[in-house]
Amino acid sequence: MDTRYQNKITAVLLLILSIVLLSCTVLTGFEKKLPYDSKSVSYFKNSPEIKDMAIRYAKNLQRYYIYYNNFDIEQAEQKLTEIDSYISTGEIKSANRSAARTFQYETRNTGPDRDSSSYYTIEPDELYDIDIKNMTVDSILEHQAMLSEAVNNYNAVEEYLKTNDDFHFSLYSKLLSRVIASNTEDFYKESSYEVISLSDDIFSLNFNGSKLNDSFTGNGLICKISIPETTSADVKGQMVMLHNKIKYNQVLSSVYLPLCLLCCAAAIISFLWLYNRKYFMATLMRLYKSYIRLPLIIIIPLVTMLLRVSFFYIKYSGAALTECFVSGRFPLIFLMICIGCFILENVFLAIAYILNIVKAPRLLLSAPDFRFGYEMINDLKLAFKTQKRTFTAILVFDVISILFVLGVMFVSLPGFRILRTLGVLIFSYIIIFFLIIAFKAIVAQIKLRYYLQELANGNMDTIPEQKGLFTTSLNNINNINNGLKKTMEESLKSERLKTELITNVSHDLKTPLTSIISYVSLLKELNIQDKKAEEYIDVIDNKSKRLKILIDDLFEASKLSSGQMELELVHSDIIALLDQTMGELSYKIEESGIEFIVTKPPAPLLVNIDGQKMWRVFDNLLNNILKYSPKGSRAYIDIKEGDSTVTIVFKNVANYSMDFEADELFERFKRGDSSRTTEGSGLGLSIAKSIVELHGGTMNIVTDGDLFKIIIVLNR
Questions:
Q1: pTM of the model
Q2: Kindly report the CA angle at 587 between 586 and 588, in degrees rounded to 5?
C-alpha cells in the first residue's frame, strides 16, 4: 500500500478516535454521582424494581388485613350457595327491572395485581348480609356477580401472601400490644437485609379510597416488611444490580475519568499536529468545506436542536451511563457516544464558520441560501419582465409561503419541546421542498417561453446556461441553437473560402488571358498565308474570349456573394431597359428563330434600380432562353404593374428534360444541359438572382413539364 495513502488513513482514524474520546469526556463529565453508596443504600428506596415489588406486597397486605378484615369466606360461600338455590327454585319475586339498585359496588381488578387507583364504595362483608327474598331479579344477579368476584379476589390475595417469599411482614396491634400476623416465626430476630415500615413515604399513594401508608395506622396497626436473607432470587438479583450500579457510578462519575479521556484526546491531536499535520489539516478542511455547503436553514436549526439536546441531557440524564452499563444496554451507550460525536463535530464546525464570518462577513453571501435567494430575485425580475401575470402572481405567492414557513420554523426552535420542535422542522422542510419544486417548475416554464421568444425575435444569440431542476429542455434548445450557429458558421466559412478562391483564381487568370487576347490580336494583324494557322488563331481567339466571359462571370459572382458590389440606384424605365437589352441581342434572336411576345404597359414604368446591373439580369435571362429553347418556338415576356411592385415574367419551352428541382438552377455552376454541350458558365441565373435580391426583390423559377417560367418581383 502507498505510504501517502497509509498516512491519510491513519490521520482520519486518529481524528475519529479523538472525537470519540472527546464525546466520552463530555458524557462522563456530566455523569451525576449517586446520592448513596454501599453503606447508605436502601434497597426499598433506591432500587425501582424492589420498590415496585414492595408496593405490590403492601397492597395485598392492605387488602387481606384491612379491606377483608371482617370478611367471612365461609358465610360468603354459603350465601352464594343460597342464591344459587333460590334462583334454581324459580321463586324470584317479579318486579320492575328498572328498579333502583340496593348496592353500589365497583370492581376494578381486585386481584393481587389490582391497580392502585381502584376502590370500593361498600365493605365486602355487606355483600352477604342481605335478604334476597325482597330483592328484584336484577339486584340478585348483580349481587351474585359481585359476591362471587369478592370471594375469588380474597382467595387470590390469600394465595399470593402464602406463596410469596420475596418479603417477610409483621403486623403489630397497638390495641392488643402484640403481633397479630406474620409469615415468619420471629420477625424481629431473624437476619434481614433491610426493614421498612408501611408508613414510609414510598407507600404514599392512593389505594382503595385512601393513602396506602395510612391504611394500617388508621386502624391501630403497625406493619413492617423486610428483605430476609432467604429472599427470592429475583430480589437478590436486583440487590446485586444495585451494588453494581454503585460501583459503576463511582468510576463513571469520577472527576479523573473525563480528565484522562481529555488528555488522551489531546495527545492524539498533538501527535497529528506534529507528525501528520498535512493530512490532519486536509481532513479538517474537507469536513469544513462540506459543512459550509449546507444551507443556513439546515445549519441553524441543526445546531440549535443539538444544543437543546445537550442541555436536556445535562439537566435530566442523571446517571444515564451507569444505568446503561448495569442493565447491559451497550447499543444505547454506542448510540449516545455517536450522538455526542455528531454534536461535538457540528458545534466545532459551527464555531469555525461563525469565526470566519466575523473575520470576513462577505463569506456569508456565498452561502447556498443567499445564492438561492439571489437566483429567486432574478427569476422574479424575469417574471415581471415577461409580463406573465398569472405565473408572476403564483411565484410571488410561492415566495411569500416559503418565507412564512421559514418564520414559523425559526420561531418554533426555542419555543416548543424537543420532539414537537423536531416534528415542526420535518414538516416545514417537506413543505419548503415542495414549494421550491413548484417555484423551479414555474420559473422553467417562464424562461422557456421568454428565451424562445427572444430567439425568434433575433434579440439574442445564445441562451444562458441553466442549472437545477426542469432546465433540460432549455439547455437542449440552446444546444440545438449553438449547433445550428456552428453549422451556419462553417457553411459561411466554406462559402467565403470558395468565394476567395474564385476571386483569386479569376484575378490570377485575367493577366495571362489579357496577354493571350492581345497577342492573338497581333497575330491577326500579321499577313499569315497559312490557312491552317489562320484557323488555329481563330479558334484561340474564340476560346480566349469565351474564357474571358467566364472569368468575368466568376469575378462578378464572387463580388455579389461577398457583398462587395454596390448599387447606383436611379429611377429608370424598366420597359425601355428591356427593349434596349433585346435590341442588343437582336442578331442572336434572329439567328435562333425564336419569336418573343412581350406584354407590357403602354406608359413608361419607373423603378428605382441600378440600370447597368438590371441590364445584366435581362441579358442573362434572354441568353438562357436563346440557348435552351428549341428553334422556331415562342418565348413570352410579361411586365405587370402593381401598387408598390413590378412583376416581370419570362416564359419559354425548354429543349431538354428537366429531371431536377427548378431551384437547383440558382446554384452556382448548375446548368440545365447536364451534358454541357452548350456554351455557358452555369453562373447566369445565380448572378441574376443575386442582383435582384441586392435590389430588395425576389426571383423564382416555376416549371410545368417543359414549360420554364422565371418570375421577378421588384419594389418600385
A1: 0.60
A2: 90
